Amino acid sequence: MFRRLTISFLLALLVVAVASVAFAAEEGAAAAGGSNYKTFIALAAGFGIAIASFGGALGQGKAIAAGLEGIARNPSAQNKIFIPMIVGLALIESLVIYALVIAFILVGKL
């Protein structure tokens, strides 16, 4: 089930990515002088932040699930589990924020 959903999502993403390039206006390409580096910078920024946020969300979900499972198994260890879990979540979120900053830098080059 999960594999089928993943393949369907990736196929839909591919169709959307190809369709946007296929239906692009020719006037924009002529005005850009035929160079596509701005298009690739925009795509890199978009895909970079999408992949980073997806990976960060997966990492945070697994960290929270493991932390809460540990607390549920041993409630007296809550102080030893909760604080490192919050620090780990902050570090995971900082990686996503770094990707956002890099995406902004790339878009600034347009």
Structure description:
Helices cover 86% and strands 0% of the residues. The chain has 110 residues and is an all-alpha fold. It has a domain at 37-110: F1FO ATP Synthase, CATH 1.20.20. The longest helix has 37 residues, at 37-73. The model has no long low-confidence stretch (mean pLDDT 82).
Keywords:
single chain, 110 residues, mainly alpha, F1FO ATP Synthase, 4 helices, 86% helix, elongated
List the helices and strands and how they pair.
Blueprint: H1 2-22, H2 26-31, H3 37-73, H4 78-108
Helix pairs in contact: 3-4
Intertermini distance? 41 Å
Which CATH-level-2 architecture of the domain at 37-110? Up-down Bundle
Gyration radius (Cα, Å) is 20 Å
Extract low-pLDDT stretches: none
Output the number of helix runs: 4
Give me a quick take on this structure.
This protein has 110 residues and is mostly helical. The protein contains four helices and no strands. The protein has helices at 2-22, 26-31, 37-73, 78-108.
